[in-house]
Amino acid sequence: MAGLKSANAKARKQIRAVHLDLKGMPPLFERLVRLPKLFRAAGFNAILVEWEDMFPWRDRDLRRPGYYDARQVRLFSEAAEKQGLEIIPLVQTFGHMENVLKHGKNEKFREIPWMNSDISPLCEGARERVEELLSEMFDAFPSSRYFHLGGDEVGTLGRGERSLRYCSVHSKTELYLDYMIPLLDFVRSRGAVPLLWFDMLAGGNDRELAYLAGKAELVLWGFGDRLEAPAVRLSSLGIGLWGAPCFKGADGASSELPDLKRRFDNTRNYLALGKKVRLSGLISCGWSRYTSLRQQCDPLEGALDSAAAAGLLFRGEQDVTEEKVLKILEDAGFLETFLRSKALLGELSEWKEIGWRCLRSALELAAGQERLKVRKDSQLAWYCLKMAGILEGADALKLRFHKHFDPLYGAGSVEDFLEERIIPLRRGLELMKRDNRKFGHPLAEEGYRKVFGIETGGIQCGTEPISH
C-alpha cells in the first residue's frame, strides 16, 4: 500500500482536471496528442480520460472502428506527462455500461434483461467482468494516482428480481456499497485512490456512508449552488470530495455549442462551494454523449474557449476575458481551427432550429386542421416546400463540415454527427407530406410554383405562408 500512501501525500495539491470524453466525436490521434499542450496552457494539471470504446480492449467487441491502439495510448500518456499532466482513467463499473451490456454475450450481466444500461450487482461473474476491464486499464496506466469508477445514474438499482429480494431486507445504498466496495478495494490494492460520482450515495444515511471514509473520494456534479448541504454532510463524515462543473455537454443532449454564460456560472458556483468545504480536486466535465448509445453533442473543437476559461478559473484567475482565452488558443496553435469550428457549429445550430420551427408549425397546423375537419387547404403545401428547401441547404453545409472537420475527427464521426441532426427533419418532411395529402389541396404545391414563382429554395428562412 506504499503507492497509496504516496498518492495521499501528494494529493494535498489540488487537482485541476479537464474531462476528455472519447465516447463521442473522438479526435483523430494526430489531434489527440496535441491537446495536452493546450490543457496545460489553460491551467489544468490533470486529464480525466473516459476512454470507453476508443481503448484497445482485449475484447474486440468493446472497440469502435478507429480506436486508439496500445502504442497511441502510450504516446498520448507521454504527451500528457511531458506537459506535467496526470492521467486519471475513467471506466464505467455500474451504470452507463452500454458499451459492455449491449452485446449478447454480456446480457446475462444486466440488472433488467431488456435494459443495457446497468450491470446487476448480484449477478455471478458481473463484478469479476468489471475487474477484468479495470486490470486492463491499470496495465496501460500503472502510475495513475487516481482512478474514476463512474458509478452514477444507476437507474435500475434495486429493481431486478434478485435485487428486489435483497432490498426487502436492506437499503438500496447498502446494495450499492456491497457491490462497489470490493471494486474500491481492488483499485486501492493497485495503489490508486478511487473516485465515484456522488449521486447514487446522496440518499444514504450516515452509518452507511461512513464505510466510504478512507476508501473512496466522491465527485459532486450538477449545479454547485444546490450542493452545499450534501457537500457539508459528506465532508463531516470524513469523505474526500471533488467538484465537477461542466465546460460542455450540459446544455442539451443534441446541443452543438455550450452556453458560455451557463458554463461560466456553473464553474464559479463550484469555486464558491470550495470556500465552504474542502475540495481535493476539480474536474471540468466535457460530455460528448450522455450515454454511448445516444447522439453526439458539443464537439470539443467548438468548445475550446469554454475549456480554457474553466482552466483559468480553476487556477485562480479573477478576470477571465475573451482576449485571454483566445490568446491561450492562439499560443497553443488552436485558434484558427477553433474559430472556424465554432462558426460552422453555430451555423448548423441555427439551421437545425429553423428546421424544427418549420416542422413544429406544420404539425400544429395539421392538428388544428384535423380538429376543424379542414380539407383542401393550401398552407401545408407551403410548409412542405419550405422544409424541402431547408433540407436542400443541408447538402452544402455538409460539404463544408466534412472539409473542415474530417481532418480532426474522421469522416465517419462527422457524418454521424450531421445525420443525427438531419435525419429527424427528413422524417419530419415525410410526416408533413402525409398531412398535406390528408388536409391539403392537391394543386397547392404546384400552384405556389406557377402562380407565385416559389421553388423549394425560394422560401426565405423566417417568412410566413402567403395569406389566403
First and last CA, distance: 81 Å
What is the averaged pLDDT score?
92
Task: Sketch the topology as an H/E string, one letter per element.
Answer: HEHHEHEHHEHHEHEHEEHEHHHHHH
Main sheet record: 9 strands, parallel
Query: So what's the CATH class of the largest domain?
Result: Alpha Beta
The number of helical elements comes to 17
Number of strands: 9
CATH architecture classification of the largest domain:
Alpha-Beta Barrel
Helix content: 40-55%
Tally of structural domains: 2
Strand content: 5-15%
- The general outline is globular
- Parts with pLDDT < 50 across at least 5 consecutive residues: 1-11, 458-463
CATH topology of the largest domain: TIM Barrel
CATH superfamily of the largest domain: Glycosidases
Topology at a glance:
Layout: H1 2-10, E1 15-21, H2 29-32, H3 35-42, E2 46-50, H4 70-82, E3 86-90, H5 98-101, H6 126-140, E4 146-148, H7 161-167, H8 172-189, E5 193-197, H9 206-209, E6 217-221, H10 228-236, E7 240-244, E8 246-248, H11 260-273, E9 281-286, H12 304-314, H13 322-331, H14 335-371, H15 379-409, H16 411-439, H17 444-452
Parallel strand pairs: 1-2, 1-9, 2-3, 4-5, 5-6, 6-7, 7-9, 8-9
Q: Which key terms come to mind for this protein?
A:
468 residues, alpha/beta, 2 domains, nine-stranded parallel β-sheet, 17 helices, disordered N terminus
Descriptive overview:
This protein starts with a helix and ends in a 16-residue tail after the last helix. It has helices at 2-10, 29-32, 35-42, 70-82, 98-101, 126-140, 161-167, 172-189, 206-209, 228-236, 260-273, 304-314, 322-331, 335-371, 379-409, 411-439, 444-452; strands spanning 15-21, 46-50, 86-90, 146-148, 193-197, 217-221, 240-244, 246-248, 281-286. Strand 2, helix 4 and strand 3 form a beta-alpha-beta unit. 50% of the residues lie in helices and 9% in strands. The chain folds into two domains: 2-333, TIM Barrel, CATH 3.20.20.80; 344-458, no CATH class. The protein has 468 residues and is an alpha/beta fold. The relative contact order is 0.10. Helix 15 runs antiparallel to helix 16. The protein contains 17 helices and nine strands. Strands 1, 2, 3, 4, 5, 6, 7, 8 and 9 form a nine-stranded parallel sheet that branches.
